[in-house]
Amino acid sequence: MFNLEKFDALYNLLSTDMVVGDCGIKCNKYCCQTDNTIKYFLPYEDEYFLNKRLENFEIVNYYLFTSYRSKNQSGCLCTRDLRPFCCRIFPFRPIIDQTFFQVTGLKKATGYGFDQYCWINEPLADWQTAAIKAWQMVLNDPDNLKFYAQQAVFLTKAKENFAVSTTSLLYQIREELVEMSVRELWKYTALFFDQLGKPN
Fold first, then answer.
1. Is residue 200 part of a domain?
2. Model's pTM, two decimal places?
3. Strand stretches in the chain, DSSP E
4. Which of 38, 71, 82, 106 has the most CB atoms at less than 10 Å from its CB?
């Protein structure tokens, strides 16, 4: 599992600029000011943020992940120094070599909002190198790998079993994840990032 020191190291990897200047000026901070983008915590990342004792901050628990919001609904709580992994890495996802369990590159998320409002298509080279290392660091952790694999298995099974309750489905999936090999977890994680942005 990631501890506070590992989150510090992860955030430090992504502390350089993705592009020249503030990327949020062009898009008016689209992903920060609206509910159109999903903000999620990695496993135990919520504990890292709770440890910071932010006054206008509250945790929101969903079935598949934990998120956050401001208590007074005033918008994004992120600062340059204090923002979760999903915000630091946005809008880039990993390209995964399943044979060697390696992150080999990045791809931009697609779909509504990403295409229309996020203008970044090519990050700076130094940031891209650091981001690949960051994704590798995240996915080398068993808890994080299971976290992303769970999303893929859920999306697949929910389409096939739409009449089953979310709670029952998650219970079943979590039992299956315990029995999965590392190779299977990497396969489902890669599938998750391949599925995102594709039409149903």
1. no
2. 0.89
3. 57-61, 66-70, 92-97, 102-108
4. 106
